[in-house]
Amino acid sequence: MTSYTRTHNGHTMMVHAPRPGELDRAAFAAFTAVEPVLGLDVETRTVDDRGPRQFADRFTVRLVQFGSDRAAWVLNPVDPAQCAVIEATLADPARRFVTHTNYDPLAVWAVFGVPLGQRVADTHVLSKLASPDERAGHGLNELTARHLDDGLTAAQDALYARMRHLAPPGQRAGNSWQRWGWDHIPADDEAYAVYAGLDAVYVRRLLPVLLQRCAPFPHLARMESWLAAQATGITIRGLLDAPYTRGLLADLDVEHHRAEAVITAALGCPARSPRFAEWLDGVAAAAGIIGFARTPTGRLQVTAGNLATLVADDAAMAALPAGAADIVTARLAVSRASNLIANARGFLTTADAHGRVHPQVNTLRAKTARMSITGPALQTLKKHDPRLRRCFRADPGHVLISCDFSQVEIRVAAALADDPTLKQVIASGADIHDATAALMYGPGFTDEQRTISKRATFGTIYGGGARALAAQTGVSEDTARQVIQRWRRTYPRVIAYGQRLAALPEVATASGRRIPADPARPYANANYAVQSTARDLLLAAVYRLVTGHHIGGLWLFVHDEVIVQARERDADRVRDALKQAMAGVFRGVPIAADAKILGRSWGQLDGPPPAPPCQENGTSGTCGTSPVHTPASGFRAAAGVSEPAEPAPCPPANQTRKATAMTSSLLAAALACAERGWKVFPVQPRAKKPPAVTGWEDRATTDPDRIRRCWAHGPYNVAIACGPSGLVVIDLDVPKLGQTLPPRWAKPGITDGADVLADLCDTHGQPWPSETFTVRTGRGGTHLYFIAPPGAAVGNRAGDNGRGLGWLVDVRGTGGYVIAPGSVVDLPTTGPYGVIYDVHLPPIGPARYEVIHNVAPAPLPDWLTGLLTAAPQIPPLGCRPTDPEQVRDLDSYTATALKRETDRVRATVEGSRNHALNKAAYHLGQLIAAGALPDALACEELFVAASVHFGIGDPPFTPDAARATISAALAAGKRKPRQLTTREVAA
User: Fold this and answer.
1) Of 273, 678, 696, 772, which has the fewest Cβ atoms less than 10 A away?
2) Separation between Cα atoms, residue 101 and residue 362, nearest integer Å
3) Residue 365 backbone dihedrals phi, psi, to 5 degrees
């Protein structure tokens, strides 16, 4: 088999590039078995950025590369054996990858039909998060040269030299040799194979480096990676109404030619001729019309904006000589039609063979993390002329639903600055710009004064001065200066907030994002803080929508607007869920959102869709599979939980009465649990998670006074901390929609978790454990409560994973909790949804946890105790085997550190497992680098400690996840050796 070796900066890397027929399947399988996360890269033929890119018919993947930090396999899909290995590796649901940008996931989807979804980490996203400034350089070559070494740059230089050498003489001018090279260089050329392989190696080496740089805000890294996968799903699905677009283009051509003909007949020149500007300058001067913008050379600027201003001025148009108004109107029509024609042609050019455009959603485009759309630039399409937006339609049988924040940046500014006057204006529900104009000019303000106030609001928040306000509104600079002074007197704390930020070298936002200041524009810091916070509120809203309301169909993000696609019959329900997800409270300031059903096209209101039949429900669309390890409230770095949400604005009286009754009922449920000796704590209303307090296992209580104080704050659901309560609860679940029976449990009569437990009872010759406290869950499952066995630690289990009992049988013990009877949840019974699948969702409605057998909990049966406390079967980590005596051979300081860190991992609770393992491995990596601890011993001890959590959680914690965390964190720790003092070593 063909292999190449490269060494850079002391780091040796092997590139295996089997030619057709040379693939060593066993060697490749051994390589992937020890690498839970692989670098992924593809080499393709040249892509035309002006066309459908990866979705073009001619698009071809020439090579696919998988890499570790020291080796890569470069596989050629032309070889059937290698193609089969490529497809199997990509489709493995347990496999994780790291790429740079989503070019590779899109190529994988386009050629192999494999949606990678949330299985991909994107180093480009992580780099933009760690260093938001676009000028920092976020290309893979730039990043690896900056953080690792110049090996990838050297490989690229060698490849380019080879392409120039091989290109035919007619293909060497300009960059033609490069286009020829990507299309024609032999797949087995050494320079090509080495460059391809090192791409995969270096992106894998880069991942832990960037994760370490994102360590101060790991929650943002998770959320941004999640959002990037959603954006890739939008790109994959595509959108366009090609027949309408072609018809619009034909109509616009006619409109353009007619307007052009009017000008040619009147002036004898084309509409865009310089002679038109000279003519307009002359007739305007003769009519006494002044104030036109001009070029630096003094020529009249004939732009669509200037022409629109003139046409809108009735007095000016009436002052023009006879016929001149028609010519000006025709010239404006030419400008507008030309822009529309260019856009419509661009849509058709970028469409694939099926007539769909695949826009690239750039989720971290600006310094403030504002998103943008390219190929085509859909965020530039204006609402006031819906003809271009109508080029984009929902799928047949579906409608588009939009929700937009209302004046979100002003609300965020009020919250961040804590300005009482601006907060009072917002709380009153009045129009913010009306209220500002009234405060500045009095109740009799004019429309012009409102416009000036609106401009002053945004300009002053973002540090604009009198000159900018004068240019935007047409008032004099003296007037603009007086307006700004009035605004500052009206909202002084907003001004003080901006001044405080201007003195900082870096802006830290409410979500933990870090944005470096621009020394030349310190006043822009307020802009960074406000815009970035507004954008993060949008991210949190989208996350709530998908993971909390289980609404898929993400269709597009445009500025502060989210657009989803849903079946017509579900439109009202999805609209309400969208508004609920986006509306909220930020630091006491209400965040308002307006949701509406657009209809079948983006650029129109088709009217309300048909009323949904009561027995049918569902949404559809495109989104990446969603992780569940980050709460939707999202951006605090608390250990997996969030504080209680801030109170919403006061509801109507009937809702208040209902909420009071619900709170009273839940308080009674919490007190009933406490009377049984079960320690309780609150979780979010009408939900199973997240907990409403941090450190819930320690803060769970049976104290009636503490319980009454807690539930006085609202209708929180009641959770029982199983470990502190001395309970083990077996959760017998029912399958979700689309969930299929695993082969192992494909036996007659098995349909749910209760059937699985009955089968286990038969297998072990034991009776069904019915005589114990039993609860029916909100989804129709069953909770069996047992007294925890003395002296035996029973932790959490999830289904078949690890030491789990079986399909749909979960166990909650130490480190876990269950929702108590009396709690009410809103739960859709849905199956998992993926990147490209239609998903039918039943309505979200209330469901109560109810006691169905009210007896004292029985002791956990011995046979179940034995199954749940058996020694785990730990897969090998891949480190060198170690002698257990090695632990005893360590010096006391290192041995104590090893025990402390592994105990930390064992004791952690669900929601902070990965954080605890990452922290422990990092600290031990520092000791390894200091020469105090053997590498293999640290690997094995950490893995054994982590194994107590395997199979626990939602999603379950897996050996592969543990391996990946240990490997990355040890490597990060080794780069910062601990400086041990003589006293520490001697200890």
Assistant:
1) 273
2) 10
3) -75, -50
Pick the closest to residue 860 from 871, 868, 852 (CA basis). Answer: 868
Residue 569 corresponds to which amino acid?
A: R
857-861 long-range contacts (CB < 8 A, ≥24 apart) are 857/727, 857/772, 857/773, 857/785, 857/786, 857/787, 858/769, 858/771, 858/772, 858/786, 858/787, 859/786, 859/787, 859/789, 860/728, 860/786, 860/787, 860/788, 860/789, 860/794, 861/766, 861/769, 861/786
Hey, is 254 helix, strand or coil? helix
DSSP type of residue 622 = -
Q: Which residue has the tokens 């079967």?
A: 873
pTM of the model: 0.62
d(CA 679, CA 788): 14
Could you give the strand order of the β-sheet that contains 37-44, starting from the edge strand earlier in sequence? Answer: 3-8, 11-16, 71-75, 61-67, 37-44, 96-99, 120-122
User: Mean pLDDT across the stretch 569-581?
Assistant: 94
What's the token pair of residue 285? 């001067």
Going by pLDDT thresholds of 50, 70 and 90, the confidence category of residue 603 is: confident
- Token pair of 18, please? 């089997």
How many Å apart are CA 614 and CA 950, to the nearest integer? 42
In angstroms, rounded to a whole number, what is the distance separating the alpha carbons of residues 956 and 673?
28
Taken as a whole, the chain contains a residue count of 987
CATH of 408-518, one of 1.10.760.10, 3.30.310.50, 3.60.21.10, 1.10.150.20: 1.10.150.20
Strands (E), 716-861: 717-721, 727-732, 774-776, 782-787, 809-812, 817-819, 824-826, 846-848, 850-853, 858-859
What CATH number does the domain located at 3-215 have?
Answer: 3.30.420.10
3-state secondary structure labels for all residues of 909-942: CCCCHHHHHHHHHHHHHHHHHCCCCCHHHHHHHH
Instruction: Name, in order, each residue with C-beta under 8 angstroms of 590's C-beta and a sequence gap of 6 or more.
Output: 411, 426, 427, 583, 584, 648, 649
DSSP 966: H
The 3-state DSSP class for residue 190 equals helix
CA distance 160 to 166: 10
> Three-state DSSP class for 481?
helix
Q: What are the sequence ranges of the domains in the chain?
A: 3-215, 242-350, 408-518, 653-869, 885-986
Q: Is 119 exposed, middle or buried (0-12, 13-18, 19+ CB in 10 A)?
A: buried
User: What is the predicted pLDDT for the residue at 910?
Assistant: 65
Q: What does the alpha-carbon distance between residue 237 and residue 258 come to, in Å, rounded to a whole number?
A: 38
> Helix (H, G, I), strand (E, B), or coil: what is residue 507?
strand
| 3-class DSSP state of 448 | helix
What residue spans of 301-407 are helical by DSSP H?
Answer: 304-312, 314-319, 324-350
Return the beta strands (E) in 708-849 as ranges: 717-721, 727-732, 774-776, 782-787, 809-812, 817-819, 824-826, 846-848
Q: What is the pLDDT of residues 141-192, one digit of tens each?
A: 999 999 999 999 999 999 999 999 999 987 777 778 999 999 999 999 999 9
**pLDDT tens digits for range 653-681:** 444 445 567 778 899 999 999 999 999 99
Give the Å distances, CA to CA, from 842 to 401, 595, 808: 18, 21, 21
* 815 HSE (CA, 13 A, CB side): 22
d(CA 506, CA 515): 6
Amino acid at 890: L
Q: Which residue has the higher pLDDT, 915 or 604?
A: 915
Distances, alpha carbon 325 to alpha carbons 314, 335, 338, 426, in Å: 10, 16, 20, 44
Between residues 606 and 251, the one the model is more confident about: 251
C-alpha–C-alpha distance, residues 975 and 12, integer Å? 17
